[in-house]
Amino acid sequence: MGIIGYIKDEMQIIKERDPAIKTPFEVFLYPSFKAIIRYRIAHKLYQKKHYLLARWYSQRTVRKTGIEIHPGATIGKGLFIDHGHGVVIGETAIVGDNVTLYQGVTLGGTGKETGKRHPTIGNNVMISAGAKILGSFSVGENSKIGAGSVVLSEIPPNSTVVGVPGRVVKRDNVKIPREDMDQVHLPDPVYNDLIRLQQENVRLTQELKQVCERLQKIEEKKLNNDNNNEINK
Question: Do 180 and 96 share a structural domain?
Answer without folding.
Answer: yes
